[in-house]
Amino acid sequence: MARLDRLRRYHAEMEERFSKLYWADDEHSDGRDGVDLSVLLDAGADLQHVTLMNMSPLAYCCSLCDEELAVRVVHEGQNVDINEPGTTAGAFTALHYAAEFSMCHLAAALIDAGSDLEARTEDMLVPSGGAVPGGRTALHLAAAKGDTAMMKLLLTAGADVTAMDYDGNSPLFLATVEGRGTAVAMLQAQQGASDMQLHAPAELRARKELGMRQAKQRLQNQMSPGPELRAVHLLRRVWTKRECKLVLRVVNRVAQRKGWHTNRHAAYATTDMRCSDLPLQAAVWVRRTISRRLFPEMCSRYGLGCHRLSFRDLFFVYYRAVGGQSELLVHRDGSILSFNILLNDRADFEGGGTFFQDTGAVHCVEQAGDALLHSGQVLHGGAAITAGERYLLVGFVNAVRVRTTSGARALISR
Predict the structure, then answer these.
(1) Which range of residues forms the domain containing residue 291?
(2) Is the C or the N end of the chain the one with fewer CB within 10 Å?
(3) Which pTM does this prediction carry?
(4) Residue 371, domain CATH
């Protein structure tokens, strides 16, 4: 009897907590995108699971080159992970952004806070159709731009002048191939004599172009994941049924107020709503519970123990058999891993599930709160529902290898 009473109290507390979430956005709303970061900083709010446009507050400021606000986040933010890889192509950390866009004040603040000087980028495609090799530190980026002020900051802090990117290119090579004479001289003074001057400009350009081709090939190889990543897993009770109902209630209230998006994913559009569209407290709860309950299981099941997972995108999807979107064509996601969690009862719809082209199988989640895990790079689609409505939480998840050296992660807690 006592156990039953405790369960009832727990459910009552959950009900009360979630019933307030819909109105929670008024407190920190700026009237445009739901959250005013300056107000959160003034209030001393915990920023660990706060997002703006599906980015952490620090990454969001960096992506806008808002150096002043980014420095505030570093100096004043509660639970700010200054080494978190970004969700956009390249997996830039804040220090990479600072180096790429010559934000010296931000770089100095990050270095003082213990930022990882040797954090690496990932291979990334560029609009021209080429690719930029990954494995680059902030010093690589500053050297390629010839930004000697940024280079001095990094070198004084102890950045490794001999660090190599994925194709064996040092900061000195990048400065040389880009014709950054002053940067070359600075690095040669740090590194000692170099044979770069012995290579003709044509040879340097050829080596640069080879690196770009190799980066593009590595990205293409990611579209053919190995056997371990091709596995599909069902994970039970990531959320309880009651938690699903309470989250779905908030989602539907926001939908009544703001509507659903239909054009966020240009090639394979879904009827969806970003997690960051939810009131602040609800969005934080969603991200925190997924990070704590689902990410460890994903690392375990896909052999990613040495990797760090982060959200590339997190959104709610709405399928409707009549008068709405009932299916999603076969596609690949822009992520290493993906998941979907069923939010409503299986009795609310017929059909549905996730279709995988290589096996021809349709995997159905039968219980609200259960999650389907798979690689985002395998071809898959949303099987059509033939009756009713189906609601999902969908996540695209990045996996970045974690360096094991000291200082690889700095979480600022005040």
Answers:
(1) 227-401
(2) N
(3) 0.74
(4) 2.60.120.620
